[in-house]
Amino acid sequence: MAKNLLYKYVWLVETINKAKKITFEEINQKWMDEEQGYDEKTKTVKPLPLRTFHTWRQYIEEIFGLIIENENSGQYRYYIQNADDLKNGSIRSWLFRTLAVSKMMLDSVSIKDKILLEEVHDGREYLPVILESLKKNIALKMTYQSYWRDEANTFEIEPYCLKAFKQRWYLVGRSPYYDKIMIYALDRIHQLELTESSFDYPKDFKAEKYFDDCFGIIADQNVKVETVKLKVSAGQAKYLNSLTLHESQEEIERTDEYSIFTVKLRPTFDFQQEILSMGSDIEVLSPKWFREDTAERVKAMWNKYKED
Hints:
This protein is an alpha+beta fold. It contains nine helices and 13 strands. The protein has helices spanning 3-19, 24-33, 50-64, 91-107, 127-136, 207-210, 234-242, 269-276, 288-305, and strands at residues 38-39, 44-45, 68-70, 78-80, 138-144, 153-165, 168-175, 180-185, 189-198, 226-233, 250-254, 258-265, 282-286. A five-stranded antiparallel beta sheet has the order 8-7-6-5-9, with helices on one face. Strands 11-12-10-13 form a four-stranded antiparallel beta sheet. It has a two-stranded antiparallel sheet with strand order 1-2. A hairpin with an 8-residue loop joins strand 5 (138-144) and strand 6. The longest helix has 18 residues, at 288-305. The radius of gyration is 24 Å and the shape is globular. 16% of the residues are buried.
């Protein structure tokens, strides 16, 4: 499908979503005002045909799972029936948001020197072969070098899912050698190819559920799920209310100086690193073992600086 057509779908969804409810005539007026139907050959802006609009509605539902409905009364205005789906973490909402940002960047190419983007780590070149293996349940032969080994090793992996976290892609799958689920960073892969071996994808494995109680990419089943209580400075609390640590996060107390938050998850290393990155603006109150372990790491950091 042509990329510019996908961008037109994005434009239509965003136009309707921003308006909440809008008539086809109003959509067409915006279409003309923003020159979305500009014809390079005739140098004119063509209106959006009603038949094309209804065809796009169908494709938008098929591709993004977004339903453009008509209230069928009064002004016959259109709206996104399941607009909340734009906010969830599904692959369809992620795809839509990615396309929306891409469209904005293309529309702003004249000010490209004023837009600074965060660099994405390598490994994207392996996505096509991984997606193929996920579709067909075919094992992969991978040459991989972890941060903890001096040399790369080659082995097979049965892929279960892909996960993006902090500008990096990760492959989650079963290692036949260790007979357990392992997680691999794509930027640490040296070589990857499909094998001729198929495998039975476990019926009880649900990717989203597997990471439900996790902060990021570490899904250590040996770390039990606990309610972590955090004391956060008033300034940092505003940040956490905007960008939550976890979907289970709740603000249970607020004062002028601080707020108390709770999150229910596995307090793994990556979660602790996130806590430490906030410095003195955050304090672990409970559970006791997690507070003590975090305190030990803070002491170790202090020991590196105290002599100065």
